[in-house]
Design goal:
57% of the residues lie in helices and 6% in strands. It has a two-stranded antiparallel sheet. It has 6 helices and 2 strands. It is mainly alpha-helical and 168 residues long. The chain is globular. Helix 3 packs across helix 4. This is Winged helix-turn-helix transcriptional regulator. Keywords: DNA-binding, Transcription, Transcription regulation. One of its GO terms (molecular function) is DNA binding. Pfam families: MarR_2. It comes from Candidatus Onthocola gallistercoris.
């Protein structure tokens, strides 16, 4: 039986679901991509967020919220990376409850090595294809992914206005 409601988007929907399932299967598993240090996708996201937002000196609860992670899941990943020597935690002088996380020099080196491997294995071919797609189409595809993530990840059925691209 063909599912008519998918219409002309059957193949795209199938690929989106296939991607989601593949990502979910490897999300928490650590992989080394033949590099010195193993990262899980979650740990990589935490590391990248910290690196991109170093100047903010956010506490762990703020970072977890920005990544749409539970504070306990964020804390577990930070603890694993502290044990590997990639992150360090400290308290601010004004509030002992606020734990700040920073990337160590070893963590920076491991991150650079790891993403170079990930780029070659996972992203290089995708980026070559995307180089041939006009930016406005990539923006629309990002909107599709935002809708999927928002509705599937949170169960919400309305979308924030800022992620909607106006189609003329």
């Amino acid at each position: 039986m063909k599912l008519e409601w998918l219409g002309e988007y059957r193949e795209f929907t199938e690929k989106l679901i296939k991607f989601g399932n593949a990502y979910a299967a490897m999300y928490k598993n650590e992989n080394d991509y033949a590099c010195e240090v193993k990262f899980s996708s979650t740990q990589l996201q935490v590391m990248e967020y910290i690196l991109e937002n170093e100047e903010r000196h956010q506490n762990m609860a703020e970072m977890a919220s920005r990544l749409a992670m539970s504070p306990s899941a964020f804390s577990k990943n930070v603890t694993k990376m502290v044990a590997k020597g990639m992150l360090e935690k400290y308290h601010t002088s004004r509030n002992k409850k606020d734990v700040i996380v920073q990337v160590t020099e070893f963590g920076r080196k491991a991150y650079r090595e790891y993403v170079a491997c990930v780029y070659e294995v996972s992203f290089k071919d995708m980026f070559k294809i995307m180089d041939n797609i006009p930016k406005e189409y990539i923006d629309m595809f990002c909107q599709v992914l935002d809708i999927a993530a928002t509705r599937w990840g949170t169960g919400r059925h309305e979308l924030p206005e800022e992620i909607l691209i106006k189609i003329e």
